[in-house]
Amino acid sequence: MASRKDQKENLRREREEREAASKAAARRRQMIGYAAGLAVAIVAIVVVVVLLAGGSNGGGDGKTQGGGDEQVAADVLPEGGTVPEPQSTPLIEAAQAAGCELRSFRADSRDHSEDIGEKVEYEANPPTSGRHYVTEAQDGAYEKAPDVKEIVHAQEHGRIVIWFKKDLPKASRAGLKALYDEDPFQMLLTPDETGSQYEVSATAWNRDPLELGTGRLLGCDKFSPEVFEAIRGFKDEHRSNGPEPVP
Fold this sequence. Notes:
The chain is of the alpha/beta class. The radius of gyration is 32 Å and the shape is globular.
């Protein structure tokens, strides 16, 4: 017969086993609760993301890349355009062949505006230089034009801007998109909503003479295939030459 001591030891072991089993069951229930809560949270996050994505207009910047209203973007800057092969024609000759004019405007300011709604008067149209918004427009092909003050800031950083009228024939707009795509480094392509006289134009802001620099304009009253070579020459002449060069 087991001694009293052995009986106590057996009872102690049984009690500890029961307590251990109870704690293990409690931990399992707790982990199940955590997992269920996590699953609910994940589902909620997914639903919110889907709803936000469904209600988004593609980031609001009007670029053709990165989503957006693809149909609107395709209407403004359709794909599939073609451009003539580069001829490496000097800018002045290319501009003359295209019937475009070249103009220069001495910059009068490099000041920043912190009010996107501020009205700034520019000598050139479209603008080439001057007071601008504190944040610059990013490189890209736009179906909706950024604020002109953001575009001017981009030019201060050495960017080239190609402007076009939205009522250009579809093939012409597709060609400009193809021209942009062949070399998009430090380039913006945007509808011209400034009310300028040109069907197509290009602008830049050169650093010389310091400290304010000089605005440059290639203005083409009428679009023609020769405009592509003129824009290429303008880009080669003025890109990455802004008063505040930024990669």
